[in-house]
Design a protein that fits this description.
alpha/beta; 34% helix; 27% strand
């Protein structure tokens, strides 16, 4: 696993296998990144180089989503179509998937303090 930056995103690039025998190490790296990250957290996991993702790996991706949400951050999963990682994503995680890291800037609001469209609408109705 490699750690880097892509714009405002902390980018973790995973390669090889995300299976029962590697998931503990991957989880430690992901959680360390979440804990040590500056706020707001914009985490992107590049899963495009994974060769195998088993049930344990898929479970880790779901746990990562909950951990990032608890840290009030955003998570994006880079998983192109027809890759092992894309087929391992639950339908719950599919909305967080993008095809390429070039798609990431399009998903992050320009000002993280700005309200979401729904929050802005709710505020306008008061």
């Amino acid at each position: 696993m490699r750690t880097g930056r892509h714009g405002r995103h902390t980018l973790l690039t995973m390669s090889g296998r995300l299976t029962a025998d590697t998931v503990v190490t991957a989880e430690a790296q992901i959680l360390t990144t979440i804990v040590l990250s500056t706020t707001p957290l914009h985490l992107a996991l590049d899963l495009s180089r994974l060769e195998v993702v088993d049930l344990h790996g898929a479970h880790l991706l779901t746990k990562t989503h909950f951990a990032v949400r608890a840290a009030r951050g955003t998570l994006h999963l880079i998983a192109p179509p027809h890759t092992p990682a894309r087929s391992a994503l639950s339908r719950y995680l599919l909305p967080h998937a993008v095809q390429h890291h070039h798609d990431l800037p399009l998903l992050t609001p320009s000002d993280p303090r700005s309200p979401s469209p729904l929050a802005a609408l709710a505020g306008a109705e008061r």
